[in-house]
Amino acid sequence: MQVITREEYKRNEQFNRHSRNALRVVQSFGTKAELNLIEEINWTHATNGSITLKDQEIRDSIVNKYYTKMVNTWEKAVN
User: Is the dihedral of CA 49, 23, 31, 62 positive or negative?
Assistant: First the structure.
């Protein structure tokens, strides 16, 4: 799996595709268990049309865990 690019991440954020970013970040850096959890949260979000506060907090904590690693990957690609 190719690491999510800065451009893809920013584009997704611009269009409020936070679920897509969470999926791509976890595909790039996370564990299988985290991937399964993000997929479940995204499915529930899509089915219900909204995300619960609890699910959003879980999703954000997983993404935040890898944010610095993701940014470091982008910076290495530039240098």
Answer: negative
**Residue range 43-77, pLDDT digits in tens:** 999 999 999 999 999 999 999 999 999 999 888 87
Residues 6+ apart with CB under 8 A from 17: 11
Helices of type H across 1-79: 6-14, 18-29, 32-48, 53-78
| Token code pair at residue 45 | 């979000």
- Token look-up 């893809």 returns 8
CA 31/CA 44 separation, integer angstroms: 20
C-alpha dihedral sign at 69, 43, 40, 44 = positive
